Amino acid sequence: MTNTSSLLTFDNVSMTFDDGTRALDNVSFGVKPGEFVTVVGPSGCGKSTLLRIASNLEANTGGTCSVDRDSIGYVFQDATLMPWRTVQRNVELIAELHKIGKGDQQEQEYTEEKCGVGPVKYYAQGIQHLDDDCRRK
Predict the structure, then answer these.
(1) What is the model's pTM?
(2) Average pLDDT in the 94-108 region?
(3) Which residues have CB under 8 Å from 11's CB, separation 6+?
């Protein structure tokens, strides 16, 4: 199914977790420029696993996933925060993924613009201090 004009391509992607749970089995589809795609299905069918694979938060166990990271965005069902990072470090993750230097003024402006957040009360603390709305931002 490899398609060079797709911004996002899943080509026979499979995912089997360590406990033997098979979340995905040879999933193939592509998303082309200008397309708006929604992945729907019942709880536990692999929707979030697909997004986690596309965002490099999870490694697929079969097939390939190709992403044009400069031209595509996606939204998770739940807040996808790294529990071992502070609030600030979670916000900075966006800049890290876009290769903007740590501590750079550009990094702060970029994260504030993209996340819609400025300095917050619990910035240096853990994410457990955030309410659901702040987690989604």
Answers:
(1) 0.57
(2) 63
(3) 1, 2, 28, 63, 64, 65, 66
